[in-house]
Amino acid sequence: MNLLTDEEIAAQLGGVPAWQRQGDSIVLTVTRSDFRDALLYVGAVAYLAETANHHPDVAISWNKVTLTLSTHSAGGLTGADFALAGQISRLG
Questions:
Q1: What are phi and psi of 3, to 5 degrees?
Q2: For residue 92, what pLDDT band results from cuts at 50, 70 and 90?
Q3: N or C: which terminus of the chain has fewer CB atoms within 10 Å of its end residue's CB?
Q4: Of 48, 89, 52, 51, the residue nearest 71 (C-alpha)
């Protein structure tokens, strides 16, 4: 996978507006109704990640879920990160 340039990353972020760039990663924090809902959301994310064979770092703090995407094998952001981010964003 090829790393995206800063310009490509900026353009891709326009398609996933809730995500924020943090260095060589993109990050999304969502607030769910409660802990159970947060876990169900993470389960849906896990399904998408397994299907894509691309896995985010996940942190859960009661009803807040933080997802961090980066292509570790490439050393930064690639198209795979934004493809999965787009799928996750459509979960609602």
A1: -65, 145
A2: confident
A3: C
A4: 52
Q: Which amino acid is at 70?
A: S
The label of the residue with tokens 């090829």 reads: 2
At 32, list the tokens: 């769910």
Residue 45, CA distances (Å) to 15, 49, 75 in order = 18, 6, 22
Say what the pTM is. Answer: 0.95
d(CA 65, CA 76): 22
Question: Quick check: helix, strand or coil at residue 5?
Answer: coil
**β-pairing, 20-22 with 57-61?**
unpaired
Identify the CA nearest to 85 among candidates 1, 25, 7. Answer: 25
For tokens 């691309």, what's the residue?
54
Nearest to residue 35, comparing CAs of 16, 14, 60?
A: 60
Averaged pLDDT for residues 44-66: 98
